[in-house]
């Protein structure tokens, strides 16, 4: 395997992004994360009610089923960051 040195003068100069563009990206990312956390928070408050309304009332696993779906969603969300 041969290796060659590239002279530093042949490297392309990359201009940094403008401050406005960086702010826009940070704002959009923050807004998206805020909406996602809001979605999980609202669902976690209503998980017990959803369990009572949509799962059989005679089953003791109704609340557990709704909370299990919340945990699966949170694990999927966390897996996206790793």
TrEMBL record:
One of its GO terms (molecular function) is symporter activity. Gene3D superfamilies: MFS general substrate transporter like domains. The chain crosses the membrane at residues 37-55, 61-81. GO terms for cellular component: plasma membrane. Coiled coil: none annotated. It comes from the Bacteria. Keywords: Cell membrane, Membrane, Symport, Transmembrane, Transmembrane helix, Transport. InterPro entries: H+-coupled_symporters, MFS_trans_sf. The keyword Ligase does not apply. Its main location: membrane. It is a multi-pass membrane protein. It is found in: Cell membrane. This is MFS transporter.
């Amino acid at each position: 395997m041969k290796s060659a040195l590239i002279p530093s003068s042949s490297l392309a100069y990359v201009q940094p992004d403008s401050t406005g563009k960086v702010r826009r990206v940070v704002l959009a990312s923050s807004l998206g994360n805020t909406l996602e956390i809001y979605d999980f928070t609202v669902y976690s408050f209503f998980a017990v009610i959803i369990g009572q309304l949509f799962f059989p009332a005679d089953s003791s696993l109704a609340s557990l089923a709704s909370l299990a779906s919340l945990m699966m969603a949170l694990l999927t969300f966390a897996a996206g960051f790793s």
